[in-house]
Design brief:
Four copies of one chain form a homotetramer. Chain A has 16 helices and 14 strands. With 439 residues, chain A is α/β, with parallel strands linked by helices. Chain A has two domains: 30-378, Divalent-metal-dependent TIM barrel enzymes (TIM Barrel, Alpha-Beta Barrel); 392-438, no CATH class. In chain A, strand 13, helix 11 (317-329) and strand 14 (338-340) form a beta-alpha-beta unit. In chain A, helix 6 (162-181) packs parallel to helix 7 and helix 11 packs across helix 12 (353-378). The two termini of chain A are 41 Å apart. The relative contact order of chain A is 0.11. Chains A, B, C, D: Keywords: Carbohydrate metabolism, Cytoplasm, Isomerase, Magnesium, Metal-binding, Xylose metabolism.
């Protein structure tokens, strides 16, 4: 690599918990074996293309602050995209993430027509392929951007105009095929504009049916092209729209069941989307695991005092320990992984700051994995929970599940036996103390 | 009626919009015909037993302030319940609501055993039956309280202890039968404790299965006893528990689909629960209508600056106009109605204050009905929405729904035709202005 | 006017409540006399330069959708600014707002140096002056933008770098002088970046002292140049920063008292900022009036389900009636007015949509004024409140305020007289019903 | 001690970080020296009377679940209060907290008259005095309850009825004197009902003046009786009222400045009140320190997904490390301390559960103290912050503070020198990583 975009940063190495080197890992030791797998295999870290390489750090109140020479309002956009790819892979390689993720519009400029856009994407896919081969970095997932261009202002799949639906369908088809070609392990759908700004001009039932139709086409095409990766829906409650249809994991799970898609589609859960929906990150993961649709994670955090998507780096080991505990309990990631859908604060304007963010995020998740593994081994929570629900594995509880009881028979039993169950402590505070022993 | 509990209040009458009599209706004219039905038939107002007659106005920081002589910590509780029934029916009759609603534990004191509790409920059911016959007031819905007694502190149907499940089942059985006997038009399930306080001691999948099993038993028993009313689940996101499983309408709809119960159970939507879940009241009604599970309404409002259930009287005609518009659009209430699950502010300590609250609430909904009816007749919103989605009724849109397209064929079409749809205005501000013409 | 930017729209006229013309006022009849003044004099409407003429409708997830030919990434920016001014004054005139508002960077492009920026602003001020003379539209307030340029990413007055403080001071000086020259009636300070993103790198005490120093310089300069308008601080709790120092009206009032500036500076209250701070719009206005620092209003609304500044047009007559009631009670606007700091939804992409938004907003405030005037005349609230606090005008209450009592003497009195005050109803529901009679 | 209320629990001892004994401290080693003082001297832990001994665990939806034999609806209330005191001191002693806190109504039953109430309080004060002597447990602060009795439903000091003001004054006088007699180190005012439920019936200016008058009387009485402790106001934004006047620390600071009380009164900051006000706990502490009014802490946490006061035990070491860091930076506690205004979850119904809660809370704060002490010693944050603001200690920055500059002179400087400050990174992510090294 002749020119370097991050000349001050060397490959990030593991140096151990006592290291004070800000450009070293303290916990992420990729080859360390934990519960029979390496940390790398467990965590399946990915960095994203968009926040890191496609944003100048602008916000709604001010211009960009970041130093990103490959982003220019004028000039040869495809040549700039090539520079961007070089910067991206230099970063991925130095950081040591095994995966990356992208939207079609991240990697290549949009053309005047879809045909041109596809050509640009194809051109860049060649370059990404070469960079992937050179570095060994793989693709965790790809996706199509159906929310930034103004044609999607009223939605992609749920647009009142069927031509927009068609345009989005064509874009998804191509993005999925590029993902397939690049060996992507998942394909994600995030419906940033699949929602409404006002109920006054919206037909909810109509849009819901459009969405289901679109999703079924996507499933069909996946099988048609032989893509073996997982399809993932990413729930978000609102922003940019007032309300998004994929509000949270429970909503998505219900939608999948309604349309018989529960075995075809899983969820990509983002920490910040969880909290915007009024849930803890832990909750969303636990619901997805309980529903059997846990797929992948966008590992970030929000700001509990701010009501928009801040996409900050995860840094709460206590919370992420419970997230990783749920993941491990449910068997660990299959095709999914931990993608950092994270961005720098606007004041973090030095190019090297993105290393600080990711190193902190990776160490947070690595330490959380270590803690969670110990929680799995010692099983203090699992033992408590098993004992708490033991009554459902036998006797009355089992009979109820086995269909041996009705309201009638249970009523007779309670009246006959003067059943009067006594409460036992849920021991929440004690369990919280126990968890803190592992954090 | 010898003794009176509200001696200063006479039967509330309609006096017209210009009336300044605080004890008169300005809009609710029960026999006025609107879109072919009387206002009474449209609105199906109900007052609730619990907030009005079972609470002293205490809150978590202070004692009761209300003057409720039939609530006494000591003394003959059944005799007090009889007094309470007299007060309730005096109130219902003077207010002129055609319906009321109750929990089993509202109408009768709990006994030392379930048998005693049932006997108390039966005793009071005789009295209610007589009062209903005397006054013509009918039962909109009944329900069982599976959340106040400490035995339900870890849930009813979702309790880790199957004996609690059984106890709750027995209670629901009896409450549904009493509801049936009294001609109730719906039976409601609100799972105040069906949720979790901590994920650390909770098995979400297990509790979800218990809940589904319980609900199926309830459906089965309904059919067995020939109850023709509607079963209703009332969504609420949290409070008293940290998280309730029936979070919002979309969550309940999904759960019903998952378990094949979407034709057996509908929702009872509360305005304040909607806002606690991060939705507008209008949103929850619109989702329920779109899902075909709109059942009944708990007509109250929350305080947008307070994060708990304030259960205030609806007084926002603009919002309730849109709520009634959705109801009318979907064909109006069938067995459901508008129940005031509302309570006085703690400072509203005079006994007559509950008339002020209800009169305001009823007039708000009555005016909203009138506005909504006009919105239906003039159809400015429906016309706009129909035009906006017209592309889906023919040509490309229809073909997509008819299964004539795949991602492949749509992609070919877009590439071949250089399809590049242009955005048209959603006209949100104009539509908001139009709605304001009807408010 | 040769070229027109809004050729399809004529001067908006008052047509009365029954009008269904979307380009007419139904309530705003500028010459109608209300409580001795015209509606125009009462409401003092202003339209803003920024949202209407400086934004393309982009959001953080997507490009602009609005048709604004005077916004171009390349080309002669000063010539474009001249076009923009023409469009703006065509709009102001057709809409019939008596005032407008601007930031320095709205009206003129930033130069390579501050000197160039000043020259640009001066050039445009000449043009504005001519347009103002031509149309009779006046300046409600001006302000300097110390938040968009990346130099202000860590704040203006509160920046860790004193050079940024100096730069901001120079910009404010010039903006205030231009405001003065154009006859502006107020000068506003909104500290979008005067706050923190992280406490870890922030010295709160230091930044607070910087801010006070800055504000005192502004006050000093105002007097020096003989500007007679009012200085206004605009509170906002967060966004773009995590926390802004001018959090809400109470915070600003306290800050002014701490630094002895309570007679020099007032507040410009925005509806959406109020709700982001956890207050109702009504609350913020009421606090400002009670503190004697009510200055001006940014009349917009937020979305109660979205946690960011949506800057929507006010359309809730019930709420705005209470806002206008507080304003009238405190004597009406002096130099302040009602500025629409409002923006179109991103889907409202037609150029004419900004008329719909403003017409709706102006009618909402006009109807609210009419309602509020009647509430003032009939005085049902004032009478109730006066009676409620009557005890403080005489006897014990007066003695307490007159310093005739101590804890000691009050204790003696209560013990001697067995004082045991009985609660009386606050009559909240009854008062809410009364207000609804006026809405 | 003959009878024991917590027979299964022995005195809690420090056993070290590796201990798995749930009834032992892992970090709180009271005699360990940290930065020159013992942990006991630094942390000044207190347990509260109210949640632990005066509550049955009821919530608004259900009855109590806790086993508290000294709480009985009927019977000799003074004798029960004596039992309660025994239980309390057994608990304080076994837990090893050096302090406790109480409301007047916690320790003694209210009488039919204030005279009787005072007599009851005095009787119990004798008993507390003896228990304090016996155990060595001291009083951190006392307070009067002006919110539970229905006479205070419209406020104490801010009540529309001056007789209620007088009653409250008499109660505060007595509670302060009892606090003084028992050697209390602070006296707290929490205005649970000093706020409004509706602006419609409220005169904000009047109530604010009442409140200021009341507070001045309290200050006067403090000096009169020679009480040397600190007066503390406890901010809370809402609940039970819709809005409380002591909304947050900034609001209280402003109020104190307005009335010249900033040297007489400090704040008692509660973690859960901070988050209800839209702030982080850390923020409220930092503001109080910056304002010089940091007094004492109610160490609890809220639930970020629930909008009411959950009063849970602190268990987030990362957050509390920053809280303790601010405290240490500002010189540590003077008269204040860490009071656990915490309560058990309703399902934690075993009597011993309150030990689990407190042990976890104390260890969380103890570990946080250790972390914070290291952050003080190593000073990575302080060094960064000092360097960041260095420009204000000399040259231009110093000149600005020294009054050598005006807008005019700064403008001249910027124009003359073409000052164009360049942004430097705020390094937020790097600093967050550094903090995580200390957690």
């Amino acid at each position: 690599m002749s020119e370097q975009f991050f000349p001050n940063v060397q490959k990030i190495k593991f140096e151990g918990a006592e290291s004070t080197n800000p450009f070293a890992f303290r916990y992420y030791d990729e080859n360390r074996i934990v519960l029979g797998k390496t940390m790398k295999e467990h965590l399946r870290f990915a960095a994203c293309y968009w926040h890191n390489f496609c944003s100048t750090g602008f916000d709604i109140f001010g211009e960009g602050t970041f130093d990103r020479p490959w982003i220019q309002p004028v000039g040869d956009q495809l040549a700039l995209a090539e520079q961007k790819a070089k910067a991206a892979f230099e970063f991925f390689e130095k950081l040591g993430v095994p995966y990356f993720c992208f939207h079609d519009t991240d990697i290549a400029p949009e053309g005047a027509t879809l045909k041109e856009s596809h050509a640009n994407v194809n051109h860049m896919a060649d370059i990404l392929e070469a960079e992937m081969a050179r570095t060994g970095v793989q693709l965790l997932w790809g996706t199509a951007n159906l929310f930034s261009n103004k044609r999607f202002s009223a939605g992609g799949a749920t647009n009142p105009n069927p031509e927009v639906f068609a345009y989005g369908a064509a874009q998804v088809k191509h993005a999925m095929e590029v993902t397939h070609r690049l060996g992507g392990q998942n394909y994600v759908l995030w419906g940033g504009r699949e929602g409404y700004d006002s109920l006054l001009n919206t037909d909810l039932r109509q849009e819901s049916e459009q969405y289901a139709r679109f999703l079924k086409m996507v499933v069909e095409h996946k099988h048609k092209i032989g893509f073996k990766g997982t399809l993932l829906i990413e729930p978000k409650p609102q922003e940019p729209t007032k309300h998004q249809y994929d509000y949270d994991t429970a909503t998505v799970a219900g939608f999948l069941h309604k349309h018989g898609l529960q075995d075809e589609v899983k969820v990509n859960i983002e920490g910040n989307h969880a909290t915007l929906a009024g849930h803890s990150f832990h909750h969303e993961i636990a619901v997805a695991c309980a529903e059997g649709i846990m797929g992948s994670i966008d590992a970030n955090r929000g700001d509990m005092q701010n009501g928009w998507d801040t996409d900050q780096y995860p840094n709460d080991v206590a919370e992420c320990t419970l997230v990783m505990y749920e993941i491990l309990k449910s068997g660990g990631f299959k095709t999914g992984g931990l993608n950092f859908d994270t961005k720098m604060r606007r004041q973090s304007c030095e190019r090297d700051d993105i290393f600080h963010g990711h190193i902190g995020g990776m160490d947070t998740m690595a330490k959380s994995l270590l803690n969670a593994a110990k929680l799995i081994e010692d099983a203090p929570l699992a033992d408590f929970v098993d004992a708490r629900y033991a009554g459902w594995k036998q006797g009355l509880g089992k009979d109820i599940f086995d269909g041996k009881h009705s309201l009638e028979s249970l009523s007779q039993m309670v009246l006959a036996e003067d059943t009067n169950p006594v409460s036992v402590s849920g021991r929440q505070e004690m369990l919280e103390n126990i968890v803190n022993r592992y954090v």
